[in-house]
Request: fold
Amino acid sequence: MFCVIGSQRLVDVYEDIFQIAIGVWILYSDVKNSLLNVMFITEPANIMEQAKSVSVTMGDPATLQCRFSGTKVLKVKWRKDGRELTSGHRYKVQSTDKSSVLNILRTEKSDSGDYNFEVSNDVGSSTCEATVSVLDQIIKPSFTRKLKKTESIKGSFAHLECLLSGSLPISVLWYKDEKEIKTDDKHKCTFFENTAFLEISRLDSADSGSYTCIATNKAGKDQCSGALLVKGLDNNFLVFYFSVSLALFGFRTF
Reply:
């Protein structure tokens, strides 16, 4: 709604709005064109984090995970002794555009050996190898993928996770700055398929700090730590956003 005195002022107001709208459209077009240019750059498939070798007690599950990058469409394959492994009564394969997980649901002696992972697309491929050792003994926990520094926005959520190997049952505890975290309406702690998860909702600056995961079983324990940084929205972005919103949709008096 605009309060305008005189027809010339009305013209001036609409010229202002038109110029702002054109400016926003040019900015949008530049960003869109840049994104389109980037989209046409084809990135070969590349493994960013290789699977780590693990030792497990016979009968326990074993988990191997790889993280990768590359332009879609990406194809992934897990193999043992040259044979491709797929989801079934013995294996579970879960893949996204950035990672792939192989779960051996209940290990047997015959599962010991080398496992090969391959990710590929139209312009390249990448492979890695990891060893699974199935033993007749209790194995202490070990982190095969540790916590890393994580950044998130105030008001959103954070998802921390780390991958474990070792004999079950494994007890997992989470700490922030040496204070234990328990599941409540803000925090959710879970341990599933050898992966420990901590989800934190409604983030604020007080959630920034050092987080530690400690895994324990009868044979011993292991731990890893990582930092979480909670950031606010960029002030320059907020000024731009509210200025354009006010100019286009707000109230102006002349």
User: Anything to note?
Assistant: Confidence is low (pLDDT under 50) at residues 1-28. The domain at 142-231 is CATH 2.60.40.10 (Immunoglobulin-like). The radius of gyration is 26 Å. DSSP finds two helices and 20 strands in the chain.
